[in-house]
TrEMBL record:
Residues 4-61 form the HTH lysR-type domain. PANTHER family: HCA OPERON TRANSCRIPTIONAL ACTIVATOR HCAR, TRANSCRIPTIONAL DUAL REGULATOR HCAR-RELATED. PROSITE patterns: HTH_LYSR (PS50931). One of its GO terms (cellular component) is protein-DNA complex. This is LysR family transcriptional regulator. GO terms for molecular function: DNA binding; DNA-binding transcription factor activity. It comes from the Bacteria. Belongs to the LysR transcriptional regulatory family.
Length: 296
């Protein structure tokens, strides 16, 4: 049989109930001639008459009766599946898995609380995602959405609200000569091996946070590659290199043998909420709306 047309099947089932072309058209909000067209098309697909029509009556042929009996359960199951999926897509209550790089600060936790307060029955499960794989958990469906450092240039991912724009700071060992400075310039990065995220983080994303050259074109030496932010902090303390961090992250990871120095001449960092376009639902959209409203 050729391509299945749901409208033809629906028309046939309504006609099987009404046994009247006019009333069938009224129920389907189409003309009587359109009902005739749909039934005729269906009969051509199956290769036999399903409806017997005279000037006085409409009835199903024996084959049409058997077709109706076989079709009704399948059509009912199809409609139920569509309605169930539609209801799920519109439903907010339920768990939402949100990934964070590093740590969720007070502002993001406030957004989580606001989301749960606003949507009864909802809950947010927080999971840490690796520094070296910011988008993998979203692609693989391990989390529903993730708060990540920009930029995002991933196929299939939706970038929602962008927030927490922060100046960059250079985290370095207290033994490094630049540790005694109140501020460094972007050109000073040529004197610091920059610790970067290991694979599978994309090259564009790694270079955004550990550039290969200063704005003036001076090469910046490459430091070790790490999978987690904590690994990077340990290497900084060991004076193996420095890391460019946003101000809240630098403050959260401060320790006696590591300092963070403001860097002039670099763009601000920003966070964004991302999710996969194939998994988008009302719950994710509702959480994104709360984040956009509550996190500056």
């Amino acid at each position: 049989m050729g391509g299945l047309e749901i409208r033809e099947l629906e028309c046939f089932l309504v006609l099987a109930e009404e046994l009247h072309f006019g009333r069938t058209g009224e129920r389907l909000y189409v003309s009587q001639s359109r009902v005739s067209q749909l039934i005729g098309s269906l009969e051509r697909r199956v290769g036999a008459r399903l409806v017997s029509r005279t000037s006085r009556s409409v009835r199903l042929t024996p084959l049409g009766q058997r077709f109706r009996d076989a079709l009704e359960p399948a059509y009912g199951a199809l409609r139920a599946a569509v309605e169930e999926t539609r209801s799920e897509a519109r439903s907010v209550p339920g768990p939402l898995r949100v990934g964070f790089q590093g740590t969720a600060d007070d502002r993001l936790l406030a957004a989580v609380t606001a989301f749960q307060d606003r949507h009864a029955g909802s809950s947010v499960e927080i999971a840490e995602i690796p520094l070296s794989d910011p988008f993998g958990p979203v692609h693989r469906g391990e989390v529903d959405a993730a708060v990540v450092l920009l930029p995002v240039e991933e196929d299939g991912l939706v970038l929602g609200p962008v927030f927490s724009r922060q100046p960059q700071r250079l985290a370095i060992s207290t033994r490094h000569p630049l540790a005694r400075r109140a501020e460094v310039s972007a050109e000073d990065l040529a004197d610091v091996p920059l610790i970067s995220a290991a694979e599978p983080a994309g090259e564009y994303w790694r270079r955004a946070h550990a550039p290969a050259a200063t704005p003036g074109g001076r090469p910046i030496p490459s430091g070790p590659a790490v999978s987690t932010l904590q690994e990077g902090v340990w290497l900084i303390a060991a004076n193996r290199g420095g890391m460019l961090l946003c101000e809240p992250t630098a403050a959260y990871h401060r320790r006696r043998d590591v300092v963070d120095v403001p860097v002039a001449g670099l763009p601000e960092t920003a966070l964004g909420l991302v999710w996969h376009q194939d998994h988008e639902n009302a719950r994710i959209r509702a959480f994104a709306a709360v984040v956009a409203e509550t996190v500056p």
